Automatic annotation (TrEMBL):
Pfam families: DUF2268. Residues 100-288 form the DUF2268 domain. It comes from the Bacteria. The lineage of its organism: Bacteria, Bacillati, Actinomycetota, Actinomycetes, Kineosporiales. This is DUF2268 domain-containing protein.
Amino acid sequence: MTITVLDTAPAIRRIVTAPPAARPDLLRAMVEPARGLYRYFPGEVDVVAMHGMSFGFPLDRDEDQILDALGRLEEAGAWARIEKALEDAVRLQSGSLAGVNVPDITVLFVLGDPGDAYFRHTVGGFSGNGSVTGYISLTLWPTAENLARLEATAVHELNHNLRYAPGGVVWDPATVAVGEQIVSEGLADAFARQMYGPELGYTAMGVPHLNDDEVFAKVLEGLGITGMQNFVSWVHGDAAAQRFGGTPVGLPTGAGYAVGNRLVDAYLAETGQNAAQALYAPSDTIIRTALRLLQ
């Protein structure tokens, strides 16, 4: 098992200081080692377009802000911190549950777009993806809160990576249920909290709704809905649905994360397990066990 956190800092600096016409090709070169992130997309993927769609730093503006933010990440030792956090997490997970498949993992860590209001404010300047086995992407704007939570966000995405690795839970985009992603977000947060405590381990956008019974009841209505195209509405909320072409269902940002945490915490309390031990627990078992206690 090898964890490779791509050293993207020099590449980001080259990109934003290069002539504008040269920037797309430089970005493609930076992303190329992590192209496997897009292996489930149909056809040839334009990584420049995907970079923009996933809140990556712009290629045509805000150069001074980006360079300043890049300097803050370098001063914070962000790349080394991510690598160490992932190595620590793998040791914890491997020591907690026999037979865990830990693949080689490539991490793409980039700055986000300072001019994107949804990214900066609605979701707090962070976006991650750990669902594609062998790859983790982290897009971040270095606020004080995000820098403090850097390790926790990285191991959250690792938890997804390991849950869906071969030998673990099978993820079929066409048939997977909303309940699976709700549970997976709760498990990933619980794992981050197991390592770093509640102050850092919760995904920030879900925290305001952790004890909201109306949000909890509403999300429960969608747990059985299948197909990944529905997840943005039920997991991330109405603002995300509007941003990405989904159908709003009346939920605040981060609703699914809050509900996932409540379900997983109830399950862990009932079974006496910790999050690492529950890595492969079936989502329907977690939901059924939790609802016996919570309803």
